[in-house]
Amino acid sequence: MKALVYTGPEALEVRDVPASVAAMGEVVVDVDGCGICGSDMHAFLGHDERRPAPLTLGHEVAGRLPSGQRVTVNPRVSSPTSPATLAGRDHLCPERQILSMPPREGGFAGQVSIPADNVVAVPDHISTEQAALAEPIACGWHAVRVAQPLVWAQKPRALVIGGGAIGLGAVLSLAAAGFEDGVVSEPNPLRRKALERYSPYIPTAPEDVPDNAFDIVIDGVGYEATRAKACSAVTPGGVIIHIGLGSATGGIDARRLTLQEIAFIGVYTYTAQDFRDCCAAMFSGKLGPLDWTETRPLDEGARAFADIRAGTVAAPKIILTP
């Protein structure tokens, strides 16, 4: 089968690779679409030691089972017997794997293999492009679920940092949870313009985001500058939820977090139940029309990565189709 293979920093090639083989308890999914994630970009730039070349990237998968059933895929595989999994926190299983990290090849290919429990059936009214958004939106859905019990303000105001799919998924999840008033911070003016159509929150340049103004802040980027903005923008007693994996250090104002009793919580992906709940919300229309994707063929994947890096892509998500 054909696959878009990461061969080294800033290098991608379409290659013939072996077809997927299902292990015990797994199914083979014929990929209809797979989204480009920020983590794929980190790997493409040579910034992710967890994803060594050569490797097929991509984990935001929608496709079909051999029966013809259309599905979306939870790409994270956990041990069913680990203490974390048994406690309902399977996303923290120390033995976890994910599509696009060894030993599991990713979804920029014709097929992937995955445990049968990791697929969710997709109804007819949901397109492939919409179904492929389940994984990135589930990250924001999980973040909101973790944060919600800690937000005490009667009419909380929210800030989401980053207008890509992770950030927009967080915005939609916040709005669905009743956080009506908010801002989404995005430095790219092209993407800010697009967000005017897709986001219920006001798209704002980072330099225009006020300090000490938001009861909940979700950082979907995770660089030093965005963590610094989160620390300055949150109100006393507020909550910062950190999703982004842009860089490991810098930007945290520990003194302000302490003196103002601000919660700073890192969140990683989602539980299996979060993924299923997010899918149900998507399929019911609770998260909006989900019409913010751009679709390109897999053999133009290298160009898509280059365009994202250049900042010339307005859509929050590009889906590659085999």
Give the helix/strand layout.
Elements lengths: L1 E7 L2 E6 L9 E10 L2 H7 L10 E2 L3 E5 L5 E4 L2 E2 L5 H4 L10 E2 L12 E5 L3 E3 L6 H4 L2 H14 L9 E5 L3 H12 L4 E5 L3 H10 L3 E3 L9 E6 L4 H10 E9 L11 H6 L3 E4 L5 H13 L8 E5 L3 H10 L6 E5 L1
Parallel strand pairs: 11-12, 11-14, 12-13, 14-15, 15-16, 17-18
Antiparallel strand pairs: 1-2, 1-4, 3-5, 3-9, 3-18, 5-6, 6-10, 7-8
Brief write-up:
With 322 residues, the protein is an alpha/beta fold.
Keywords:
single chain, about 325 residues, 2 domains, 18 strands, about 30% helix, globular
What features would you describe in this structure?
The chain is of the alpha/beta class. Helix content is 28%, strand content 27%. The strands form four sheets. Strands 3, 5, 6, 9, 10, 17 and 18 form a seven-stranded mixed β-sheet that branches. The protein has a six-stranded parallel β-sheet with strand order 13-12-11-14-15-16, sandwiched between helices. Strands 2-1-4 form a three-stranded antiparallel β-sheet, with no helix packed on it. It starts with a strand and ends with a strand.
